Amino acid sequence: MSRKHNENASDRRLRVDYMTRTERVRAAVMGEEVDRVPVCFWHHFQPEGSGRAMAEATLRFFDEEYDLDIAKLMPDIPYPFPRKSIASIDDWRLFEPIDPIRSRFFRERVEAIAVLREALGFETPIIVTLFSPLAEAMYAAQSREQFLNHAQEHPILIHEVLATIADNLAMHIREMINAGADGVFFALQGCTTTIMSEQQYREFGRPYDLIALRGGSGGWLNVLHIHGEKDLMFDQVLDYPVQVLSWSDRIAGPSLREARVRTSKCLMGGWNEFGALHKGPVEQIAAEARDAIAQTGGRKFILANGCSVPDDTDPRWLEAARSIVDDLPVS
């Protein structure tokens, strides 16, 4: 990012904004008046397991380069269980309660929060991306099909595994909020009928989502991300104890307008992560943003990508997206 760009961003903040980032996001969550719509977008950083490196990448991207309203720690420091490592049904018994002091992975996440909070103070909200218990279990399996087969053939064991993961995550979420995070970005996998039936999700997804989310009771900015490209079980999760809903509204639906009549929670979205935000043009980035404001009325709304933009996205499109926000109407 050029020095000229950073100077322009600083001048823009002095001219346009009268709220801190935290004040702006809190107001949006509560449905109160904002000086401008809050904005956030993200991609992955791949810090190779270092909490300090993760914090530095997060600070650079969200604060220094793009002046975004939320600092979002990405899930690039993974849950401490090897991906695609389940070879037989007995391997599921390797999931155990995690000691947060002894787990390097959990400690690195907490360290990243501490580094960010020290650098940002309390004028910028910090959230941490975590995958749901079901998502972590499916990542551990060789395939989704293997997980679903094991769940059908050995449901008691799989329920025990999911309960263990959920308890671990609840403890970890509570620890991260105590360390200074304002909430979690809790990403659901499998909450779509392209992967499993609604009955299966009610059995193997929902109960453990809710156990894990108990850890977030002390946070004011818990975001539920419903991942998928189509056929989301959107209505099944509207009562989850979170303040914000995130999903790929431009790709998977429902639209922001449709969601607004189905829930009073703050909505987060508006940009197609694989569309203009990734490959331009500027006019289309602006058009999607204005349309999102029109759909939501600009209240209880955070302008964002539906999911991670590709890591190779040209920064000029992200710069344009951030600059556009200053000229958007507010209600």
Concise synopsis of the structure shown:
The protein is of the alpha/beta class and about 325 residues long.
Nearest-angstrom radius of gyration?
19 Å
Query: Strands of the biggest beta sheet: in what spatial order?
Result: 1-8-7-6-5-4-3-2
- Poorly predicted ranges: 1-7
Structural class by helix and strand composition: alpha/beta
Within the CATH hierarchy, at the fold level, what is the topology?
Answer: TIM Barrel
Strand content: 5-15%
Query: Which overall shape is indicated by the principal axes computed on the Cα atoms?
Result: globular
CATH architectural name: Alpha-Beta Barrel
In whole angstroms, the N-to-C terminal distance is: 32 Å
Tally of extended strands?
8
- Number of spatially distinct domains: 1
How many strands, what sense, and barrel or not for the largest sheet?
Answer: 8 strands, parallel
Order of helices and strands: HHEHEHEHHHEHHEEHEHHEH
By oligomeric state, this entry counts as single chain
- Count of helices? 13
Helix content: 40-55%
**The top level CATH class name:** Alpha Beta
Averaged pLDDT: 93
